[in-house]
Amino acid sequence: MYNIALFGAGRIGQVVHSVNIDAHPETNLYSVIDPFGENAQKIADKFDCKIQTVEEAMQDPNIHGVLIASATDTHAELIELAAKAGKAIFCEKPVHLDMDRVKQCLQVVEAEKVPLFIGFNRRYDPQFKAVKERLSLGMIGKAESLLIISRDPSPPPVEYIKVSGGLFRDMTIHDLDMARFIMGEEPVSVYASGSTLVDENIGKAGDIDTAYIVMRFPSGAMATISNSRRSGYGYDQRLELHGEKGVLAAKNLHEDAVEMWTDEGCQYAKPEFFFLQRYEAAYQAEWKHFVEVLSGKSQPAVTGYDGQQALYLADKALESLKTGQEVKLD
Amino acid sequence: MYNIALFGAGRIGQVVHSVNIDAHPETNLYSVIDPFGENAQKIADKFDCKIQTVEEAMQDPNIHGVLIASATDTHAELIELAAKAGKAIFCEKPVHLDMDRVKQCLQVVEAEKVPLFIGFNRRYDPQFKAVKERLSLGMIGKAESLLIISRDPSPPPVEYIKVSGGLFRDMTIHDLDMARFIMGEEPVSVYASGSTLVDENIGKAGDIDTAYIVMRFPSGAMATISNSRRSGYGYDQRLELHGEKGVLAAKNLHEDAVEMWTDEGCQYAKPEFFFLQRYEAAYQAEWKHFVEVLSGKSQPAVTGYDGQQALYLADKALESLKTGQEVKLD
Amino acid sequence: MYNIALFGAGRIGQVVHSVNIDAHPETNLYSVIDPFGENAQKIADKFDCKIQTVEEAMQDPNIHGVLIASATDTHAELIELAAKAGKAIFCEKPVHLDMDRVKQCLQVVEAEKVPLFIGFNRRYDPQFKAVKERLSLGMIGKAESLLIISRDPSPPPVEYIKVSGGLFRDMTIHDLDMARFIMGEEPVSVYASGSTLVDENIGKAGDIDTAYIVMRFPSGAMATISNSRRSGYGYDQRLELHGEKGVLAAKNLHEDAVEMWTDEGCQYAKPEFFFLQRYEAAYQAEWKHFVEVLSGKSQPAVTGYDGQQALYLADKALESLKTGQEVKLD
Amino acid sequence: MYNIALFGAGRIGQVVHSVNIDAHPETNLYSVIDPFGENAQKIADKFDCKIQTVEEAMQDPNIHGVLIASATDTHAELIELAAKAGKAIFCEKPVHLDMDRVKQCLQVVEAEKVPLFIGFNRRYDPQFKAVKERLSLGMIGKAESLLIISRDPSPPPVEYIKVSGGLFRDMTIHDLDMARFIMGEEPVSVYASGSTLVDENIGKAGDIDTAYIVMRFPSGAMATISNSRRSGYGYDQRLELHGEKGVLAAKNLHEDAVEMWTDEGCQYAKPEFFFLQRYEAAYQAEWKHFVEVLSGKSQPAVTGYDGQQALYLADKALESLKTGQEVKLD
Known about the structure:
The structure is a homotetramer.
Chain A: E1 2-7, H1 11-23, E2 27-33, H2 37-47, E3 50-51, H3 54-59, E4 65-68, H4 75-84, E5 88-91, H5 99-112, E6 116-118, H6 126-136, E7 143-151, H7 158-163, H8 167-183, E8 189-195, H9 200-204, E9 210-216, E10 222-228, E11 236-243, E12 246-250, E13 258-262, E14 265-268, H10 275-278, H11 280-294, H12 304-323, E15 327-328
Parallel strand pairs in A: 1-2, 1-4, 2-3, 4-5, 5-6, 7-10
Antiparallel strand pairs in A: 7-11, 8-9, 8-15, 9-10, 11-12, 13-14
């Protein structure tokens, strides 16, 4: 049984991570750490775990692993502290919004030789995973063009937008990682086009809410991402991979499987509302993977480098958006 | 926290009921009772619960409720013992395969005034429940004709068939209950037609493996059930309700949401393999309901009478099959 | 080029048959015959063909074939006249509503050795034909259970109902023929259950508007038909054939292929409105077949006997409805 | 009745245009003109029309309109000749592959004041037309992002590629026109990325076979086109328009509506094979529109200017591809 310290008792900590840590037969939610005592208390009450300070947790020899789901700007420092304390680390994306800080942090992790897993949970979505597996099995031949459609149901508050790092670093970063995951090669160029169509306050905050990103890969294959901060019909999370012999298409999951046919037409349910619903299985599967990392059976399948590369692509997409030019990549 | 004694440590006890009792925040898997010590031990080890005899469990004042998932021919007696011991009772269908024995048993339950819930889990399937709810909301007007398609992926061993009570009492009984649940009235006639097409040994055992059942209701509405012991493509569990203004159709749930389009055509995944997968949510929901019964917040939504009526319809369908005639019902 | 006389200038004559005769490169719409001069004139004007009396047409040596799409009660007599005149005959179903009259008529046809094709157009629907072909290719093994769902968009006027011969002889007859076509064997029993749910005036006229029919075949296979005079959502024409290895399902054709996803759900188009839309391709294909019959390249694929058998099943379904009993067939 | 001269007796002339001219009640296929006498003869035989030279047709006062479906490099000259002869003109895209030549040609048309319709047939596809209409009705609010997926089933011969003007001018031009049609505004920038993945000989011929194009519009809306010369699964012609309130998605049309469910999964038919099947209704509808132009009831809904603009976008996409930069548009 591995004891886990959970950093961050916000929504995802309460609804996803604490539940998954508790439900896994090999992990124990040992403690929760959060500057907002009220949230920490909720988790402590529900799962009968300790409340600790950062320092207490880092020094506590009973803790085998940490799950960092705190505010984005605390990730890098907590990773470094945990690495120095010799804990295995599961950290929500991103490591940090600033690339230099990311690199610095990853050097510490490397020096301390602790495992670090970055929570790009969508790689563990059964749909997207099946696409990757069937591609690997050669079912559609070589990958040629990937289309990722990724739209949130509705935009976050502008206050969040302001500290988010912007659309590309906050939202697109998942899709950029997905493109790297599916295609299995690093892009050589990126182009981005974006607009503020959903909420003009997002534009006033210096961000965009709608975007298309196009990447090219060394093989000549391409990938396109279509993003919006608001769908109008639920969480839209699809991808289509066109290969030599055909297409693998991951469709949305819908709220139910009941259709209604009347004089007004035929109706079926909207896509699952948002990430908590759509990616429930993915969150469980990534935690299962992390437990294998804890036990030494696996190496982290999503590394600090993956986190760094997704941020790099987000930064370069932003550069393209600002210059109106395709950006060549290293 | 309610302490639950689980009678029956077979597959459904191990994979479904013990897990759901343990996962619910208000129930505790207190003990397991099974003549096969090995199975009981598995559950005791996994959930750290007692192993008891029937007598110990019935006399144990710490036990609030029993979940009966043992062999069919033990249900009635266990219900009676539990009723006399004042325990709330959750029993898998059927109460018994013999109608007189069912009635006798239900009289004991009534006399003891304990709650008895019969595990017609499909009523808690989110799809079928949504059909019922939308019908109740008037979304398709009055119900006119119901079609239930219910096919197992593959037939059980003939040894099982021999003690099963036959297709109607073993398998169709779920669909008969579903028809009563959706239509909200008791049928006035039943007609059945059946064949042995899947496995001739089923026929040699005096049973059938393929059937159509037609029921009429007082309102003039009708219902048809299409059954087979083998689908060839996974567990097929659909229903279509035609009403005044249109149709509500509950489709199958599929193994994933990935399509593949190639020169050979367009493909999507098979329906979920069998009841453990398809009705996972239903099993959890019925347990949640039973906990509300335990706490006095609800009355059993599926009663002993429902169990009796479903068996009655199964018996009458068998009579129709044997006589080749429509049978009038009380 | 074959000269065709069209008997009946009603809607189906105007919209379907005259158009198809004219469009086929090997047939010429030579004349039209109808007691309502106005309708005949419409067709004559549009296609520049003669208007004839029945007698003129039967005696006209230029006419190679007749297409009988007149009122039902004129079919048998026109068939006999055309047979005696040596014309090849295409007749809309039914030959007659009275079985004895049908047999009498078919004897004349047989004596005269002219080809007679009965217009069970649905056998030429590309969807249903594909099901039959894939069954024949062994793609799902042996047929086990067939489900036909057949609902009109809305009921005809009660005046029509009164002369229609009733639901089974007027509407179900197509589905009974479809069951014979798909299964490739003659049923050994039929059971019918029906109600008046759509329009009480249909009940007052002695007919029903909603029905389930179950047939058994010598192989043990079964077929069920679900009928309604009103769907609420367009013309519903589906079938599902369950065989040893799986299902072949012919879905509805829809008005378009555009979906709309909004906050209210996901929507797609209703089924094609009615038979003129849904079976357009079938009407063309059956005429193409009849031209092959005219040229001697084919024998009629749907014979007078097929017409007789479908009527026989309709009559027996009615007997079952009236007696509430399964009826054994010859 | 309008007499039509058909220039070009190649495949599309034989299979589409001659048939549609003949089938329309107000047009008569008067003559066919083609340097390959054999093809012209086929059409003349089938429709009993004259064979003429270009000069004869242009001077023939009986001819009201011309349909130009000849080799691409003859379009501009034939348009000019027909304009000077006062004929109404239906011309397959493109006017010419060279922009200066296009402009010169359109000046002649303008000077002669004859109607000129450019055959961007996809605007008449019932699916895409329905998307445009529902957008206009406000069903999804303002358009925000358009995704066009357009893939041919298999690449043409390299000989064709060499004279085609390249992927953008030959194939993408339809999608560029579709984007203008749906969005209802002129793009302000275009970016293109492309590869040779399907056939290396296409690359050797200086062309590409796979591409992504991104356009921005003055409103901030965007459009993306995904192209391939080979799909692997039939003709893929879809579009998805995301607006303020949701999505309108035009799906593919499939070869039939029959599904097969077996142990290997669930299967449905491939998309219609190619443009002759998929756009049959569109070709008929555009001809119907042209007949309204002939009769003076309508102005051409797709003009020479539309042809010019689509070519302009194709040229600019090519410039983007070559420079690797987004190109600003006038």
